[in-house]
């Protein structure tokens, strides 16, 4: 049987070792002869699990003590609404830096709750690139500044942190959290859906500075109110216990393998290998400027829609799954999150070489 590598943009592949442990414990977790899904979320064993999960995540990402970590539901889209409901104050408006589909979608949602100024920081000429990141001259007039450091659809990543002076910086890191080291102190809020680097779909992590908690507008539903959630251990309702458990296993898996620093090194090696091949190819093309090429989502095309469809079909038959590009831009997309081994990238390149030779 051909070895299968899953290049899905999300829900994405998870570490095999994590899934094997979950499989082994599925019917007998902690010697209870029940699944983790069947025990009380407020019971002693599960409370110990979430306490350790927060500790491990805090260690992994070097999260300071003055930040709360919330394990919520609703995905990043839920946070598109929760952020303005919790942060909009006397200034009454927010600045959104848009660099692609998801940052623009976040800005659209925020307009339901506040005044939004939107600045497109993506140049869409021969190459996609981010031109401007210094907004320190205007940021103070906003309650917060929001951006998305990695756009999964186009494969554009912003490696430098925008300059916003003393303003609150909010980042949607759904697709690159734990993929490389960041200075948490530069952010007021970081949020991320789990289904790319953290675990399965169904849980969302919010890292929020403590001084930003307790400012939600009165009409904010309790499930989106950071203060209510922080005071309730993220459990004002029954949480997605199995997803939380799987995240806890991923955190331990990463810690055992050198943490985020080591993961970043592996991610750089994988991405460099694939981009080096694309750069020397006259058959495939990537249209992202080198300084903004995503470590997580590598987009490419043959320039021919029919040939692209053929590529995706034959790649799937060869055990290289989910390489079809997003419908917004077409082409192909290889998502190579933390769990993707370098062997998967090598297998993809070998297939790309064979396909190019057969279809010139």
UniProtKB/TrEMBL annotation:
Q: Which reaction does it catalyse?
A: 4-(phosphooxy)-L-threonine + 2-oxoglutarate = (R)-3-hydroxy-2-oxo-4-phosphooxybutanoate + L-glutamate; O-phospho-L-serine + 2-oxoglutarate = 3-phosphooxypyruvate + L-glutamate
Its biological function?
A: Catalyzes the reversible conversion of 3-phosphohydroxypyruvate to phosphoserine and of 3-hydroxy-2-oxo-4-phosphonooxybutanoate to phosphohydroxythreonine.
Q: What is this protein called?
A: Phosphoserine aminotransferase
Gene Ontology CC annotations of this record? cytoplasm
Q: Which SUPFAM superfamilies match?
A: PLP-dependent transferases (SSF53383)
* Localisation: Cytoplasm
User: What family does the Swiss-Prot or TrEMBL record give for this protein?
Assistant: Belongs to the class-V pyridoxal-phosphate-dependent aminotransferase family. SerC subfamily.
Pathway in which this enzyme or protein is active: Cofactor biosynthesis; pyridoxine 5'-phosphate biosynthesis; pyridoxine 5'-phosphate from D-erythrose 4-phosphate: step 3/5; Amino-acid biosynthesis; L-serine biosynthesis; L-serine from 3-phospho-D-glycerate: step 2/3
Sorted alphabetically, which Gene3D superfamilies does this protein's record hold? Aspartate Aminotransferase, domain 1, Type I PLP-dependent aspartate aminotransferase-like (Major domain)
InterPro entries named among the record's database cross-references:
Aminotrans_V_dom, Aminotrans_V_PyrdxlP_BS, Pser_aminoTfrase, PyrdxlP-dep_Trfase, PyrdxlP-dep_Trfase_major, PyrdxlP-dep_Trfase_small
Q: Which GO terms describe its biological process?
A: L-serine biosynthetic process; pyridoxine biosynthetic process
As cofactor, the record names:
pyridoxal 5'-phosphate
Q: How is the cofactor bound?
A: Binds 1 pyridoxal phosphate per subunit.
EC number of this enzyme: 2.6.1.52
Q: Which of UniProt's keywords are assigned here? A: Amino-acid biosynthesis, Aminotransferase, Cytoplasm, Pyridoxal phosphate, Pyridoxine biosynthesis, Serine biosynthesis, Transferase
Positions bearing N6-(pyridoxal phosphate)lysine: 196
Q: Which residues form the Aminotransferase class V domain?
A: 4-348
Residues binding L-glutamate are 42
